[in-house]
């Protein structure tokens, strides 16, 4: 095995000295995850400028026995893009692969490189008169490659699907340093195994996504937003059914937020006022996107709310009068994670259960947490329309958050077992990363884990891609 110095010299020859970061002051931002839960070590941070350089670096890593941690915007929440402590590894940052390669208006597609900031992709589509609907709180800093590697969801999954549904083709550097060009803008292609879907959601453990061809949609002529106060998650699910029945595919967003979520937001961001005059147990943020007119969208939304008020499903409602107020409603929702961070360390859960079982899950799990951890505060919010909840647990008021975090394993076990009882998933859109990779042994069958191991061994026989992520430790 050659020395580290020889390896780094080879990387510098590929990407240039200025794009090989070795000093602690330069590498530090890449070695700690967004939540500051994990910090690792790396020989260097390598920043290639294109797919050819990326492939060359991967080949060098294979020759020298160096592992690779692919990284986009480093906004992940499960430590999937953070290097582990042991072993020889580099962080391969794809930030410089940031070009929009093509926009095909007739085919309604856009091809962009993996390092493109999601918001830049949205803007490029908008400037071309189209919509790229993937939207999430980190869109100003997360990257398209990271979105695909984690199969990101966001706020518009209900209508447009998650990242997998929005992607038609990929360009991938394999674990051996070969390039698979699968950038086909096809809606139909039955020529063998679906490699695209295999790499999406694999968190950089099977290949490195370097570019993607994604779907574009017509820009809606109008968006209408409302906040509805409901007494319980069951009422919210009923409202969802009514909205889907009346609005069909025009229903773009349906977000659930508990009273405590918005009181937390108001506490830490006083300019963001609680929207209703009196406290409400739960609130739903609805949005319609209409290709006809604003009047049509407003009439439809008001009709949904009027019917739900008459039936007692909704207790109060606010319809945004303009885009400014609509943005204010969304700002409340998007500020919940920031308010949680301000409040102190917390235990996050990104879970999915069938929509029909969401109410049962909350009704069963809330009392269990209070039984075992009295005073714990539940920060329950998320994408109710697609069954994805961020079911987070905050320390009791006045308690020591660091001490409360010592209960994380026990709380996770309680929540995950409850998820399993409702036939759900312990990760809906954040992935497994380092945080949940060992937990899946309890919640996936040995057949499923065996198939995942077989795929990893086949596509990455040298184990160079993102070790210590997704798959549980070998027994």
TrEMBL record:
| Start and end residues of each FAD-binding PCMH-type domain | 38-219
Any Pfam family: FAD-oxidase_C
Please give the superkingdom of this protein's source.
Answer: Bacteria
Q: Does the keyword Flavoprotein apply?
A: yes
Which co-factors does it depend on? FAD
Q: Which GO terms describe its molecular function?
A: catalytic activity; FAD binding
The keyword Flavoprotein is annotated on this UniProt entry: yes
Q: Look up the signal peptide feature and give its range.
A: none
Question: Which key words tag this protein in UniProt?
Answer: FAD, Flavoprotein
The record ties this protein, via InterPro entries, to: FAD-bd_oxidored_4_C (IPR004113), FAD-bd_PCMH (IPR016166), FAD-bd_PCMH-like_sf (IPR036318), FAD-bd_PCMH_sub1 (IPR016167), FAD-bd_PCMH_sub2 (IPR016169), FAD-linked_Oxase-like_C (IPR016164), FAD-oxidored/transferase_4 (IPR051264), Oxid_FAD_bind_N (IPR006094)
GO process annotations (BP)? respiratory electron transport chain
Family in the record: Belongs to the FAD-binding oxidoreductase/transferase type 4 family.
Return the protein name: Hydroxyacid dehydrogenase
Give the species this sequence originates from. Pandoraea thiooxydans
């Amino acid at each position: 095995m050659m020395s580290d110095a020889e390896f780094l010299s080879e990387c510098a020859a590929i990407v240039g000295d200025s794009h090989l970061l070795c000093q602690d002051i330069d590498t530090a931002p890449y070695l700690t995850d967004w939540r500051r839960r994990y910090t690792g070590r790396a020989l260097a941070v390598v920043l290639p400028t294109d797919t050819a350089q990326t492939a060359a670096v991967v080949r060098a890593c294979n020759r020298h026995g160096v592992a690779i941690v692919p990284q986009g915007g480093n906004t992940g929440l499960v430590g999937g893009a953070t290097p582990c402590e042991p072993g020889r590894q580099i962080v391969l940052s794809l930030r410089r692969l940031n070009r929009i390669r093509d926009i095909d208006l007739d085919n309604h597609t856009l091809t962009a490189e993996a390092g493109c900031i999601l918001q830049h992709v949205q803007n490029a589509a908008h400037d071309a008169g189209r919509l790229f609907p993937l939207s999430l709180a980190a869109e100003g800093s997360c990257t398209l490659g990271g979105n695909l590697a984690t199969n990101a969801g966001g706020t518009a999954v209900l209508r447009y699907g998650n990242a997998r549904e929005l992607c038609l083709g990929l360009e991938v550097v394999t674990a051996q340093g070969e390039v698979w060009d699968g950038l086909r803008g096809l809606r139909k292609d039955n020529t063998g195994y679906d490699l695209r879907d295999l790499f999406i959601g694999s968190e950089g453990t099977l290949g490195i996504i370097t570019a993607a061809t994604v779907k574009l949609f017509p820009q809606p002529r109008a968006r209408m937003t409302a906040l509805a106060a409901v007494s319980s998650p069951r009422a919210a699910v009923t409202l969802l059914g009514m909205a889907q029945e009346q609005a069909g595919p025009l229903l773009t967003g349906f977000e659930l937020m508990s009273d405590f979520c918005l009181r937390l937001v108001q506490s830490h961001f006083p300019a963001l006022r609680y929207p209703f005059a009196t406290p409400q147990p739960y609130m739903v943020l609805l949005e319609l996107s209409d290709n006809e007119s604003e009047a049509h969208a407003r009439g439809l939304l008001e009709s949904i709310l009027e019917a739900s008020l008459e039936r007692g499903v909704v207790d109060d409602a606010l319809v945004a009068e303009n885009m400014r107020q609509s943005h204010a409603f969304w700002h409340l929702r998007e500020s919940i994670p920031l308010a949680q961070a301000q409040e102190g360390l917390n235990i996050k859960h990104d879970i999915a259960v069938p929509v029909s079982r969401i109410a049962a899950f909350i009704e069963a799990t809330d009392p269990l947490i209070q039984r075992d951890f009295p005073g714990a505060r539940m920060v329950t919010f998320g994408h109710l329309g697609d069954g994805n909840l961020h079911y987070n647990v905050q320390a009791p008021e006045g308690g020591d958050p660091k001490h409360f975090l010592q209960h994380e394993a026990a709380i996770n076990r309680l929540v995950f077992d409850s998820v399993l009882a409702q036939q759900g998933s312990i990760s809906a859109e954040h992935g497994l990363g380092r945080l949940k990779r060992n937990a899946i042994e309890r919640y996936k069958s040995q057949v499923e884990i065996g198939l995942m191991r077989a795929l990893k061994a086949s596509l990455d026989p040298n184990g160079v891609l993102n070790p210590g992520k997704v798959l549980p430790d070998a027994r």
